[in-house]
Specification:
Radius of gyration: 26 Å
Largest sheet: 7 strands, mixed
Strand order of the largest sheet: 2-10-9-8-7-3-4
Number of domains: 3
Shape: globular
Oligomer: single chain
CATH architecture of the largest domain: 3-Layer(aba) Sandwich
Length: about 450
């Protein structure tokens, strides 16, 4: 069967309706010079439905890899409870379009409202938006928000912030008049002296991350206080699962909290789609990009949900809008909401404790391997750095052949760290898998 349902008569009628009397489809493109027309896309001839399904199924089978993963770097292999897929896959929600019209979309609006409430509780912040594209985009939006709120153009960025995020922030702002100052890490943590040296009355924001890209935990309360003294804003990117046991951005006095929500019930999926969350204080709510859903009461005293603070948006403020370049990931936000509701306060704590405990067990097993050094100068959560006696990229390749994703080679973003590897452990990794990992790593290094 053809994939084009229109008969030649249908096509002739449509051509005539648009003024092509010849009935020839090529004449529809006569305004395009012949040399600029695509003569052929070099596509194969059409196939039957059975043939297409068979070919696609064969391709899909290549994605099935029985790999035990210790790979992190901002994206993690957490367990996803079955109700997340079951509820998020319902037809009421499962759409590429995010419906906002309050008269027809109370379910979607309430889901977003509840998601915002969960993010506020998780981060101890006062206001959350309806989500943005991903963790890196959220950090960029926070930087721009600080620039708008302070009227300043200088931004300090800690070297421990995810290098993917730092690249995104610089790329998004490459055509803007912004001065970036990147400060180093000391023993894996934020360099306070460097921050204090560069922080002045021209600084819009200081960007930090907790745990940082090396997995190191840090309390940035003192940096938040430094920022307040200079009228700058503090921005912290966080790993949401860690907030089950770590000090929250709100407790530290952070002004804007952002992060990647993939670990909240969203599969790795070869890189997306993911979820960027963003929360702040009430005083900065009007400067925050993205849509915000609020609860209200209608004329009949019934509770309802609507978009609020719309004066910030593009259909009102035009080019001065704060929400015209970010994307709401509503379906991913719904998954995060369901995940957080299923686990609850105690469940998040339990997952975080499991990650911490299993990571410590993995550290002990790897430390016992001759020639392997585990960096312990600063406390870590579920991710840590090891130094190998051989090139990390080579080791990771050899381990992959054995069905183990051993970690992330830090030399990809940090020159001179060719022997350094970042290892992540989640609640899904068993003691048997960790023991197998250690045994294979020792064999690769010394066989």
């Amino acid at each position: 069967m053809t994939y084009i349902p229109h008969t030649p008569e249908d096509q002739a009628a449509m051509l005539e309706a648009v003024g092509i009397d010849s009935g020839r489809l090529d004449d529809l493109f006569r305004s395009i010079p012949p040399e600029l027309r695509a003569r052929s896309f070099d596509l194969p001839s059409g196939q039957s439905e059975f043939e297409v399904m068979k070919e696609l199924t064969d391709v899909a089978r290549k994605n099935t890899l029985n790999v035990v993963t210790f790979l992190g770097g901002g994206f993690y292999d957490h367990y996803i409870p079955a109700p997340v897929d079951a509820l998020a896959g319902r037809s009421e929600f499962y759409t590429a379009y995010t419906p906002y019209q309050p008269e027809a979309s109370q379910g979607t609006l309430q889901a977003i409202y509840e998601y915002q409430s969960c993010i506020c509780r998780l981060t101890d912040m006062e206001v959350s938006n309806a989500s943005v594209y991903d963790g890196g985009t959220a950090l960029y939006e926070a930087a721009m928000m600080a620039r708008r709120a302070t009227g300043r153009r200088k931004i300090l960025m800690d070297g421990g912030v995810n290098p993917i995020y730092r690249t995104m922030v610089r790329s998004y702002t490459s055509n803007l008049s912004i001065e970036f100052v990147e400060t180093p890490v000391v023993h894996g943590q934020t360099d306070r002296e460097a921050i204090e040296k560069h922080l002045d009355d021209e600084t819009a924001a200081v960007i930090v991350q907790n745990p940082n890209f090396f997995g190191v935990i840090d309390d940035h309360s003192d940096i938040a206080e430094m920022c307040r003294r200079h009228g700058a804003l503090s921005i912290q990117s966080v790993y949401p699962i860690s907030l089950g046991i770590l000090k929250s951005p709100g407790e530290m006095g952070i002004d804007i909290a952002t992060g990647e929500g993939q670990s909240l019930g969203i599969p790795l999926s070869f890189g997306g789609p993911y979820l960027g969350f963003m929360a702040t204080s009430k005083t900065l709510a009007r400067k925050m990009p993205g849509r915000i859903v609020g609860a209200t009461i209608d004329a009949q005293e019934r509770r309802g949900f609507v978009l609020t603070l719309q004066a910030r948006e593009q259909h009102i403020r035009r080019e001065k809008a704060t929400s015209n370049i970010c994307s709401n990931e509503a379906l991913c936000a719904l998954r995060a909401l369901i995940y957080l509701c299923l686990l609850g306060r105690e469940g998040i704590k339990q997952v975080a404790r499991l990650c911490l405990a299993k990571a410590e067990y993995a550290r002990q097993r790897l430390e016992a391997i001759p020639g392997v050094e585990v960096k312990r100068s600063s406390p870590t959560f579920n991710e840590f750095t090891v130094v190998l006696p051989r090139n990390a990229e080579w080791v990771i390749g050899e381990m992959m052949e054995r069905g183990i994703a051993a970690g992330f080679p830090l030399s990809r973003y940090y020159p001179g760290m060719e022997h350094y590897m970042l290892v992540a452990v989640t609640e899904k990794r068993t003691k048997q898998e960790i023991a197998m990992y250690a045994a294979h790593l020792e064999d690769v290094l010394w066989s």
